[in-house]
Amino acid sequence: MAFVNFGKKEINFKIVYYGPPMGGKTTNLDYLHKVMPEDIKGKMTMLSTREDRTLYFDFLPLKSEAIKGYISRFQLYTVPGQTVYDQTRKIVLTGADGVVFVADSQWDKMEVNVESLVNLETNLQTHRRSLAEMPYVLQFNKRDLPNVAPSHYMDFLLNQGATRALYFEAVAVKGPGVNETLNTICKMVMAQFVETNKIAP
């Protein structure tokens, strides 16, 4: 949940990038950290395991105007993709204000995409949360590869439920779709905070 730092007059939001192993979560954060101006981003921190890694950094948007005198800081996290690190995934989801689900667009990854999405819902339930009540977007990554499923098929496969999520096509290693995904989830997170707290932006 958003943390308000009254001393610094900042509102801290946490966004988690979730998805199957090697789907592009880390690549998203690597690209974003590389292209952001030095004066608005924190240091990239990597929590490595034997087979996978969790990344984290925070940033202050260039044009995030104050909400009643406060500025917004966003903390971006990835979760490890390997199922053996499921406990770490649960920990990283703690206090999340928004989720980006990064799906691998290759045909042979559809099953692991579905498994990872089900795992996301299951792990959110341990925090008494659900995708239906929090800001959430889908990213269909690796659209530049030759053997990818059509976006409309991935939308049908991964975007079922009462509340349909926005989705973005992306090539995280090169940048297309990465900023659009981040900008949208940040706006959604801020909008929910304003609505929940009944304040004017």
Question: What is the C-alpha radius of gyration, as a whole number of Å?
Answer: 16 Å
- State which percent range the strand residues make up: 15-25%
Discrete helix count: 5
Overall pLDDT score = 87
The stretches of 5 or more residues where confidence is low (pLDDT under 50) are none
Overall form: globular
- The termini sit apart by 18 Å
Please state the structural category: alpha/beta
User: What percent of residues adopt helix (DSSP H or I)?
Assistant: 25-40%
Note the run of SSEs as H and E: EEHEEEHEHEHEH
Number of strands: 8
Top keywords for this entry?
5 helices; 201 residues; alpha/beta; 8-stranded mixed beta sheet
Structure commentary:
With about 200 residues, the protein is an alpha/beta fold. Helices cover about 30% and strands about 25% of the residues. It is built from 5 helices and 8 strands, in the order ββαβββαβαβαβα. The chain has helices spanning about 25-35, 85-95, 110-125, 150-160, 180-195, and strands spanning about 5, 10-20, 45-50, 55-60, 70-80, 100-105, 135-140, 165-170. Strands 1, 2, 3, 4, 5, 6, 7 and 8 form an 8-stranded mixed β-sheet that branches. β7 (about 135-140), α4 and β8 (about 165-170) form a beta-alpha-beta unit. The two termini are about 20 Å apart. The relative contact order is 0.19.
